[in-house]
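Q: I'm writing a short methods note and want an example of a predicted protein-small molecule complex. Could you take the sequence and the SMILES for pyridoxal-5'-phosphate and return the bound structure as tokens? Please keep the output block clean; save any remarks for afterwards.
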Amino acid sequence: MNRPYNFSAGPAAIPEEVLKTAASEMLDWHGSGMSVMEMSHRGKEFISICEKAESDFRELMAVPKEFHILFMQGGGLAENAIVPLNLSRGATVDFVVSGSWSKKSRKEAGKYAAEVHTAASGEDSQFTTLPDPASWQLSRGASYLHICSNETIDGVEFQQLPDLKALGSDAPLVIDFSSHVASRSVDWSKVGLAFGGAQKNLGPAGLTLVVVRDDLLGHALPACPSAFDYKVVADNASMFNTPPTWGIYVAGLTFEWLKNQREGDAVGIAAMERRNVAKAQSLYDFIDASGFYVNKVAANCRSRMNIPFFLKDESRNDDFLAGAKAHQLLQLKGHKSVGGMRASLYNAMPMAGVDALIAYMREFEKKHS
Ligand SMILES: *Cc1c(COP(=O)(O)O)cnc(C)c1O
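A: Understood, no commentary inside the block.
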């Protein structure tokens, strides 16, 4: 079976090997006589799946021991509330607004935090640039600073995480890394908490991954639901309530797949990162060299994962999408707030998929110019 290339922004493509393993284990996981979906989350089978997923992620992403890895539910949007419920402690929270997602997060935090302060915004540039950290207006005594490290809709990505200490702030950095988790390494020395929904780069929708430093646990506001209190979740090894067992299992298969990736002498996340750089570079180079397509994001903050682009003649959009589908290239339509096209090149997208997209774009351009 020849599967099409799927450029969806999320839920997104899952590596074919992972899908095949999940299919082959669907009726009987490792001789247990049960599907993973039918197991007690307190039984030894599922506990072994969950513990392995956690330790594989820790190893893959080099997560230091002072961080907890939590498997939660509610997605990135629920974390927009759960983070201030746990971390705001009645103080001001700072936001850098770099696109649609951080803007949404800021709005939600306003329901729970005493005060929300915008330290910087890229809105004046229609989110085609990232505000330089040296210009951020950090508030004194902020309980945390939130950034979205990869803006899925606008296609901007922090190539380096800001060093808040160097900017004179003791506030922990919170990153929403939903759409580039496990696509590159993370400098954990700069991070207090990271969260991400699984459905972009880790597996099926329904699982949210949270990585949180020890000292940030135990400060939840009284109104915080117990199931969303990071300390309660951590103390119960993500089993305070029934966790999203299927999502944890498929994410675990994805972590195993990631550990086995190789590019030259690089292995695991380093290999993935090398491949992601090459994939994105090849599409950006093609777009920049063409007079037919355009990407408006400044070169130093272009996302490796989500590449929005426009046809200069937008009357051909529907034609472009229909032709793409006929060429087995799916879900390229841009987000409604931005328009145009968007190619999401998550970990599961091979270089061959990017090559096929570029070949189609070249052919379409030739036909219409
Ligand atoms: C997809 C996404 C979310 C939203 O995730 P849900 O699971 O739909 O709540 C949040 N932040 C970013 C950056 C995303 O890409």
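A: Remarks, as requested: DSSP finds nine helices and 16 strands in the chain. Residues 263-368 form a domain with the Aspartate Aminotransferase, domain 1 fold (CATH 3.90.1150.10).
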